[in-house]
């Protein structure tokens, strides 16, 4: 009788450990179009934004209740018309029936009695819904009758319209007999900035943002918001203000240029007396062009200069007007000879839009590489091997961006660092990136107490597109 063979696991014991899949870094190639149209099944105050595949967005928006003339629909048409077509678009709502946190102007309908200066009055539910908050009694007359009040804070209730009366009850007022105050709110509805703020809280997947209602004054404050938004974003805005292509310095392009905003792209476009209605959505088209070109595929680097804006009519400009626009870092779409071209592809600080975009791609990749490495392999040790692990992840991120075609070998023209770091102005950097850090033996006591690695220095040389070519033709007559 033969015995059963002994198990191989007695000698080779294999344990299978499944490592969770790494989380892919977000890729900044989705745009958002936001307006005030209330569609029957579109975005709501509670459900701020809806993501749609761009290829079917027009059909989906009509099904939601948008019309063929809705500004959001027209903007998405321009966004989706670009080649290559971006994959996704977000549709958002600017709610004109909501209350912002600081509701602004109020009027006293019924003053009530027995209030004293400085009393804090709590606002009740009100009508239609969801209002709570506080107001302050600023001044009173005989009998404790309020003559002026100020809004301290109100929540963002919905369904309101200007001059809606809101009953109040007192809370923590000095005189317990105070009662009877009724007010109306006259500052109702989100501004374009309010909508941007609330939509960014609702979703941080989208990268580009276009408002169908923003005017020049709105663009200035929205640009300031975009500068510090997290995650990073870009705000696209076009203006037909006649002072932009002049020596004026009071226009929106001059303002954003003077403030060195690198998160807003300003464009100049007019509807040319109604002959170019699509030009009203120049910013949406520019956003769609950038989101569509940013495919994430190998060798997908691009510059916006020279590109085509599908569905946008070139702007008739004189040479002097062109000069004024360029001096303000204001983009435009115009005919150069028989060639319609996007010019010049910069943010308001003058930095090429592609530089900002691919910087953002690199930052995302570095962040997610390091976080995935920590999750998979544990914390970095406070020694040279731990530091090298982190440097390796930064190098992998640079390599990923290099595959996109966004980096170039070249001469480093940035700041010099003291040895033992190897980076000085004038140094050649092969491959377009160099990552290093000081030895951990030089780590300060405060950094060690904070359990922080040495700062990693990552120098990159990013590719940039030329916007002019000079050619000298030297002619010899005869042999």
In short:
With 479 residues, the protein is of the alpha+beta class. It has helices at residues 57-64, 71-80, 192-202, 216-228, 252-258, 282-293, 319-327, 353-377, 384-403, 445-449; strands at residues 31-35, 49-53, 88-93, 106-110, 120-123, 133-141, 145-154, 164-170, 182-185, 208-211, 234-239, 264-268, 332-336, 339-343, 410-411, 428-429, 433-437, 456-460. Helix 1 (57-64) packs antiparallel against helix 2 and helix 2 (71-80) packs parallel to helix 6.
Polypeptide structure, described:
With 479 residues, this protein is α+β, with helices and mostly antiparallel strands. It has three domains: 31-95 and 192-352, no CATH class; 106-185, Beta Barrel (Thrombin, subunit H); 354-460, no CATH class. Helices cover 25% and strands 20% of the residues. It has ten helices and 18 strands. It has helices at 57-64, 71-80, 192-202, 216-228, 252-258, 282-293, 319-327, 353-377, 384-403, 445-449; strands spanning 31-35, 49-53, 88-93, 106-110, 120-123, 133-141, 145-154, 164-170, 182-185, 208-211, 234-239, 264-268, 332-336, 339-343, 410-411, 428-429, 433-437, 456-460. Strands 2-3-1-10-11-12 form a six-stranded mixed β-sheet, sandwiched between helices. The chain has a six-stranded antiparallel β-sheet with strand order 4-9-8-5-6-7, with no helix packed on it. Strands 13-14 form a two-stranded antiparallel sheet. Strand 6 and strand 7 form a beta hairpin. The longest helix is centred in the last third of the chain and has 25 residues, at 353-377. It is globular. The mean pLDDT is 92.
């Amino acid at each position: 009788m033969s015995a059963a063979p002994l198990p191989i696991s007695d000698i080779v014991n294999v344990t299978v450990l499944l490592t969770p899949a790494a989380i892919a870094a977000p890729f900044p190639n989705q745009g958002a179009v936001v307006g005030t149209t209330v569609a029957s099944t579109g975005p709501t105050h509670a459900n701020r934004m809806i993501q749609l595949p761009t290829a079917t967005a027009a059909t989906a928006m009509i099904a939601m209740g948008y019309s063929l003339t809705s500004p959001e629909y027209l903007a998405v048409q321009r966004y989706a018309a670009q080649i290559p077509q971006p994959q996704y678009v977000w549709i958002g709502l600017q709610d004109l029936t909501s209350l912002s946190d600081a509701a602004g102007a109020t009027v006293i309908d019924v003053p009530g009695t027995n209030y004293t200066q400085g009393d804090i009055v709590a606002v009740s539910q009100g009508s239609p819904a969801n209002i709570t908050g506080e107001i302050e009694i600023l001044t009173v007359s005989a009998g404790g009758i309020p003559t002026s009040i100020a809004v301290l804070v109100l929540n963002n209730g919905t369904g309101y319209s200007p001059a809606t009366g809101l009953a109040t009850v007192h809370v923590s007022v000095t005189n317990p007999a105070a009662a009877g105050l009724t007010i109306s709110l006259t500052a109702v509805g989100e501004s374009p900035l309010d909508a941007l703020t609330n939509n960014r809280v609702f979703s941080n997947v989208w990268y580009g943002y276009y408002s169908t209602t923003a005017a020049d004054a709105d663009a200035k404050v929205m640009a300031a918001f975009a500068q510090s938004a997290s995650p990073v974003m870009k705000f696209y805005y076009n203006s037909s203000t006649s002072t932009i292509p002049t020596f004026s310095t009071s226009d929106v392009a001059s303002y954003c240029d003077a403030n060195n905003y690198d998160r807003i792209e300003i464009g100049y476009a007019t509807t040319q007396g109604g002959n170019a209605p699509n030009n009203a959505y120049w910013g949406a088209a520019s956003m769609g062009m950038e989101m569509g070109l940013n495919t994430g595929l190998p060798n997908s680097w691009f510059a916006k200069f020279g590109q085509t804006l599908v569905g946008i009519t070139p702007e008739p400009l004189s040479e002097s007007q062109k000069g004024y626009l360029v001096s303000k870092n204001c983009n435009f779409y115009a005919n150069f000879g028989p060639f319609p071209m996007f010019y010049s592809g910069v943010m308001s600080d003058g930095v090429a839009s592609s530089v900002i975009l691919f910087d953002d791609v690199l930052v995302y990749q570095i962040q997610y590489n390091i976080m995935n490495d920590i999750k998979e392999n544990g914390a970095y040790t406070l020694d040279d091997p731990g530091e090298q692990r982190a440097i390796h992840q930064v190098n992998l991120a640079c390599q990923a961006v290099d595959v996109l075609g966004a980096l170039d070998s070249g001469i480093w023209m940035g700041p010099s660092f003291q040895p033992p770091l190897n980076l000085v102005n004038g140094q050649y950097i092969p491959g377009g990136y160099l990552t290093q850090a000081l030895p951990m033996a030089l780590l300060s006591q405060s950094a060690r107490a904070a359990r922080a690695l040495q700062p990693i220095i990552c120098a990159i040389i990013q590719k940039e597109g030329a916007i002019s070519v000079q050619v000298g033709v030297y002619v010899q007559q005869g042999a």
